[in-house]
């Protein structure tokens, strides 16, 4: 009876989406995906589909899963850094979400492939990585502050960040998202959901859900952008200092300047990963910091590839004695 009730609710939800979303027929979906042939498979249950002159991603979903909340959220969201849902399909046996196609796949796989995103030296590579981080931060800033109601994604991780052909990032998979207001009303969850390694301490210990759990998960994503490794929490080297601790963790693809460029990002990630949620920055502050880091990177690159350039004349922000200070205004290069 429960399964039948879920099916009925889904049909009602999809029907209510008809004005905002296209409802595809299964014949159209089968034709676009070659009846879900292996050659069209992107990953898991996601396939590419050619709908006329456009390519979309088609995700096949079990009817056991209630997707009504995710569809409802994506209907309301219109932001460059959040995946765009174009339509749905229900053939009576399975459900299908039709969304924009992201040519470079998920950030997790992109990091595994070790793409540098440009020139051999670290400058361009860092710009791409910081821009990806900024895209994710902008998406979360929008979810936390400009949607009605405000949402907590609750499952931010590199496999839920997709990259388009320009290596611009968009947040996907809203199956665990909840409104911030609803989360406050039901502060304790029956069981934990999410991904180990990305869960904030307060969520693991008490089930507390606030936007700060997304900030914590973003801190892990930022570390992965720096290191090129999966969900690695880099412990601070008390004896050798921050620079020495970073040397063995920064992605080797980033060249000799890797550690130097990583310092501001590393400080910001540590701030997002603070144990006490109230001491973490909010996403507006994270966005502001990443904008400043990206601006400095571009200014540094504008001095050219001349190795004789005296960096002491470049007006970068000079260092703080407090290595845990996340503010870019006091970041050390």
UniProtKB/TrEMBL annotation:
GO terms for cellular component: plasma membrane. Gene3D superfamilies: Phosphorylase Kinase, domain 1 (3.30.200.20), Transferase(Phosphotransferase) domain 1 (1.10.510.10). GO terms for molecular function: ATP binding; protein kinase activity. Pfam families: PK_Tyr_Ser-Thr (PF07714). One of its GO terms (biological process) is response to other organism. Its main location: membrane. Keywords: ATP-binding, Cell membrane, Disulfide bond, Membrane, Nucleotide-binding, Signal, Transmembrane, Transmembrane helix. This is Protein kinase domain-containing protein. It comes from Linum tenue.
């Amino acid at each position: 009876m429960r399964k039948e009730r879920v099916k009925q609710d889904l049909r009602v939800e999809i029907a209510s989406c008809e004005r905002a979303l296209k409802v595809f027929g299964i014949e159209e979906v089968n034709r676009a995906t070659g009846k879900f042939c292996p050659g069209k498979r992107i990953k898991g249950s996601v396939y590419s589909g050619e709908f006329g002159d456009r390519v979309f991603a088609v995700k096949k979903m079990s009817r056991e899963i209630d997707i009504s909340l995710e569809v409802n959220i994506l209907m309301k969201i219109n932001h460059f850094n959040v995946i765009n849902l174009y339509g749905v399909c229900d053939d009576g046996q399975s459900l299908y979400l039709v969304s924009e196609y992201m040519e470079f796949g998920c950030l997790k796989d992109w990091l595994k492939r070790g793409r540098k995103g440009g020139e051999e030296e670290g400058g361009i590579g860092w710009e791409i990585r910081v821009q990806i981080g900024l895209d994710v931060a902008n998406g979360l800033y929008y979810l936390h502050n400009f949607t009605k109601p405000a949402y907590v994604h609750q499952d931010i991780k590199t496999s839920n960040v997709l990259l388009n052909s320009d290596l611009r990032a968009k947040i996907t998979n809203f199956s665990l998202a909840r409104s911030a207001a609803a989360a406050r009303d039901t502060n304790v969850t029956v069981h934990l959901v999410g991904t180990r390694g990305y869960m904030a301490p307060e969520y693991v210990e008490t089930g507390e859900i606030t936007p700060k759990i997304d900030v914590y998960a973003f801190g892990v994503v930022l570390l992965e952008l720096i290191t090129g490794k999966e969900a690695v929490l880099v412990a601070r080297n008390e004896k050798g200092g921050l620079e020495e601790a970073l040397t063995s963790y920064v992605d080797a693809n980033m060249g000799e300047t890797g550690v130097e460029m990583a310092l501001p990002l590393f400080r910001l990630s540590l701030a997002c990963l603070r144990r006490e949620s109230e001491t973490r920055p909010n996403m507006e502050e994270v966005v502001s910091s990443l904008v400043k880091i990206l601006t400095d990177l571009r200014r540094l690159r504008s001095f050219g590839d001349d190795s004789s350039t005296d960096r002491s004349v470049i007006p970068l922000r000079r260092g703080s004695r407090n290595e845990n200070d996340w503010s870019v205004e006091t970041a050390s290069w």
